[in-house]
TrEMBL record:
Role, per record: Heterodimeric electron transfer flavoprotein that accepts electrons from several mitochondrial dehydrogenases, including acyl-CoA dehydrogenases, glutaryl-CoA and sarcosine dehydrogenase. It transfers the electrons to the main mitochondrial respiratory chain via ETF-ubiquinone oxidoreductase. Required for normal mitochondrial fatty acid oxidation and normal amino acid metabolism. ETFB binds an AMP molecule that probably has a purely structural role.
Molecular function per GO: electron transfer activity
Coiled-coil regions, chain positions: none
Listed name of the protein: Electron transfer flavoprotein subunit beta
Any Pfam family hit: ETF
Keyword Cell wall biogenesis/degradation found: no
SUPFAM superfamilies, alphabetized: Adenine nucleotide alpha hydrolases-like
Record's signal peptide: none
Superkingdom of the organism of origin: Eukaryota
InterPro entries, per the entry: ET-Flavoprotein_bsu_CS, ETF_a/b_N, ETF_b, Rossmann-like_a/b/a_fold
Location of this chain's protein in the cell: Mitochondrion matrix
Chief place where the protein resides: mitochondrion
Keywords annotated in UniProt: Electron transport, Transport
Length: 128
């Protein structure tokens, strides 16, 4: 069962994990994970199911060329309703946001000429 986006990965049952993966090779019963460590590269073979986290080097994006962008703009966009995709609907959210507000604005700072003036200002403010 996949986490629902509520920071539940730490609560999942213990199992093999490969963090900061920079390379993956999927096998029938396991996954080979390559990751960068201080001394070089480390290769792990983990039984499935396993928890994997990705490093930025795992993805090598392809950049779209201008001709392909123009072709894509001309293609029709097919909209598929979620009901037609099958599967099960997601669980209802387990967290509820009760209130969301911005923190109060910070007061502006003051410039002082020297250390004695700084200490005097801190004393007057009751900080020391």
């Amino acid at each position: 069962r996949l986490p629902t986006g509520c920071w539940e990965v730490a609560q999942c049952p213990a199992g093999p994990q490969g963090t900061f993966a920079s390379g993956l090779e999927l096998e029938a019963e396991a996954v080979q994970v390559q990751r960068e460590v201080d001394g070089g590269l480390e290769r792990l073979r983990l039984a499935l199911p396993a928890l994997l986290t990705a490093d930025l080097r795992l993805n090598q994006p392809r950049y779209a060329t201008l001709p392909n962008i123009m072709k894509a703009k001309k293609k029709p966009l097919e909209v598929i309703p979620a009901e037609e995709l099958g599967g099960t609907p997601p669980d209802p959210p387990k967290l509820k946001v009760l209130k969301l507000e911005e923190p109060p604005a910070r007061a502006g700072g003051q410039r002082v000429q020297d250390v004695p003036a700084l200490l005097e200002g801190l004393r007057q403010a009751g900080r020391i």
